[in-house]
Amino acid sequence: MTTPTNAQIPIFDAASGEWLPQTMSGDATISDTGVVTVTSSGGPQIVSVPFTFATPSPVTSLAVNAGSIIARAQISITTPFNDPAATLQFGTSASPSLVMAAADSVPSSIGDYPKNTFVTAPASDTLQLTISPGASTQGAGILYYEVKV
Question: Going edge to edge, which strands form the sheet with 27-30?
Fold first, then answer.
């Protein structure tokens, strides 16, 4: 685990409606699996979760309390999954599609799949990305999200 400062990860720009690379001043934590969490004083946590077709699923990310707000989420597919039946879901262990359902992204197509969610966590739980690669032998992407815990 490393802890750099002024980490550069995409930040959601409400004016343009896009995730933009910016330098965010704050404390960053990078896990051994590549999950990056940036926290600024009193602000939301910005998290990026890299994944591939072979990443063990579910990928656990961040513990949230009841009332935590997941404001925005985006799945960016950088290498398409080669099984059109592949799906991705983002939610909690109790509700895997709480934030993003399988229909909210197309893993077999390169692209960005943003969702302004404003979902309130109903109970204390752990956020997770559920990867169902089907018979894919390729596929990669990054999940980005913003949460106020």
Answer: 27-30, 36-39, 45-52, 140-148, 69-79, 111-120
DSSP string of the chain, one letter each residue: -B--BS-EEEEEETTTTEEEEEE--SEEEE-TT--EEEE-TTS-EEEEEEEETTS-SSEEEEEE-TT-EEEEEEEEEEE--S-TT-EEEEEESS-TTSSB-GGG--TTS-EEEEEEEEEEPSSSEEEEEEEE-TT-S--EEEEEEEEE-
d(CA 122, CA 117): 14
The whole-model pTM stands at 0.76
| Class of domain 8-148 (CATH, top level) | mainly beta
> What residue segments make up the domains of the chain, in order of their start?
8-148
* 10-residue mean pLDDT series, the chain (149 residues): 48 51 52 57 80 96 91 95 98 96 97 91 95 98 91
pLDDT of residue 19: 53
